[in-house]
Amino acid sequence: MPLRCVGLGEVLWDLLPSGRQLGGAPANFAYHAAALGAEGRVVSRVGDDEPGRALLARLREIRLPVDAVAVDPAAPTGTVSVAMEAGGHPRYTIHEGVAWDRLEAGPAGHAAVATADAVGFGSLAQRTPGARAAIAALLDATPAAALRIFDVNLRQHYHSPEILRSSLARANVLKVNETELPVLGAQLGLPAGEREAVAALAAAHPLRAVIHTRGERGCLALVDGAWVEHPGERVEVADTVGAGDAFTAAFALGLLRGWAPATILERATAVAAFVCTRRGATPELPPALTAPFRD
Questions:
Q1: Which of 107, 119, 187, 293 gets the most CB atoms within 10 Å of its CB?
Q2: For the residues 220-245, what does the mean pLDDT come to?
Q3: What is the pLDDT of residues 111-134, one digit of tens each?
Q4: What are phi and psi of 101, to 5 degrees?
């Protein structure tokens, strides 16, 4: 039986300079989990329009079930305008009043999380009260033994101390990147210093693991009370869209398989580094990277 990984929240089109690409951190997480041998699924919402129908077709094309992706009769499918800055780093303009802002915790969503081994969620999809309540209800319906991974994913002004605290209270794994950790520090009153802030988060919340990704400086994690660090891989970057989501998926599968933390970071870093060498968030992963996850 494959491991089951569910992404809760936004599914959308990233409008890149090179054209539109499937996007949304929960969808990217589910895609990469499936590419690494798990059963991936997305709980989200699209509009009853051409972009929505195209998104559903794209999800089917990459072998992600769409039974838990609702179709909204009124709101349009979500889009994000993406501009590329130096080093392939994206700058996002996230459009409001879209279908995933009206996410509901319906029967299909509850069925998806009921047997999940890992559920990934972030702060962006919680920008409306209704979607926030739906995500909370689905997290509360997830099996107690499952990983509930809060990949912070701060975007624009769509976050608050309340959203951060309520998400941390439901999570048992946290992933936060180098630009997000100072924001968490300011909003949650964390101590200065990377290790000090990570340790404070782990002590204050029911977190089995806290992962701090640091771009070219690799990553630092506190897993089951033990520190582990990886220096990262140097690659020629096409863009960094989706690399963090690929890392999260690989980390989740490694943790579920009981790998040593150092092995998890090494393999998750390799997957994320490869994604950086390709355009868009969901490139096909080579067998050399996926094989260890399938053994």
A1: 119
A2: 94
A3: 999 999 999 999 999 999 999 999
A4: -65, -15
Q: What 8-state DSSP symbol labels residue 126?
A: G
How distant is the alpha carbon of residue 132 from its chain centre? 16
Q: What is the average pLDDT value for the chain, to the nearest integer?
A: 94
Non-local (6+) Cβ contacts of 21 within 8 A are 13, 14, 241, 279, 280, 281, 282
Structure tokens at 142: 């997830």
What is the chain's percent helix, strand, coil content, to nearest 5?
40, 25, 35
- At 274-294, the pLDDT tens digits run 999 998 889 999 999 999 998
**How distant, in Å, are the alpha carbons of 14, 33, 128, 215, 240 from that of 87?**
18, 26, 32, 11, 9
What's the CATH code of the domain at 187? 3.40.1190.20
Q: What's the domain count of the chain? A: 1
Q: What angle do CA 161, 96, 243 make, to 5 degrees?
A: 70
State the residue for tokens 């994690």.
221
Cβ density class 142-169: b for 16+ within 10 Å, e for less: beeebbbbbbbbbbeebbeeebbebbbe
Is-above-0.85 flag for pTM? yes
3-state SS assignment for residue 31? helix
Residue 88 has what pLDDT?
Answer: 65
- Gap between the Cα atoms of 198 and 209, Å rounded: 10
CA nearest neighbour of 142 among 3, 2, 6, 255: 6
